[in-house]
Design brief:
Number of domains: 1
Pfam families: Phage_holin_4_2
Structural class: mainly alpha
Radius of gyration: 14 Å
Protein name: Membrane protein
Distance between the termini: 19 Å
Transmembrane segments: 28-46, 53-77, 89-110
InterPro entries: Phage_holin_4_2
Number of strands: 2
Keywords: Membrane, Transmembrane, Transmembrane helix
């Protein structure tokens, strides 16, 4: 149940950011849900491989290259999904930063007091 709620919150964040950022576009809420699922899968499967392959440059840049890796993941998702457009790597970078920030706010709602 929490997984579905998290995916819906991620889709909501994608829709909100597509309205705010002119370089990012999402056609429908269903497309946003697909974007949330594909981003989750890419972060799980592709991102660790990219992090390992780019470890030297990540160390030299003190971890800042991970922002570029996140932008690349978003551009890959934009190429895989019809109805999700990101115009440049700069918009992908801004989208990545704002998506992380917005997800942390939305997911803080799901935290349980233990």
């Amino acid at each position: 149940m929490k997984l579905i709620l998290r995916l819906l919150l991620n889709a909501l964040a994608v829709v909100i950011l597509s309205y705010v950022l002119p370089g990012v576009g999402v056609d429908s809420m269903m497309t946003a849900i697909i974007v949330a699922i594909v981003l989750s899968v890419l972060n799980f499967l592709v991102k660790p491989i990219l992090v390992i392959l780019t470890l030297p440059i990540t160390i030299v840049t003190l971890g800042l290259f991970l922002l570029i890796i996140n932008a690349i993941i978003i551009l890959i998702a934009a190429n895989l999904i019809d109805g999700f457009q990101v115009t440049s790597i700069w918009w992908a970078l801004i989208f990545s930063l704002l998506l992380s920030f917005l997800q942390s706010i939305l997911h803080s709602v799901l935290k349980e007091d233990v």
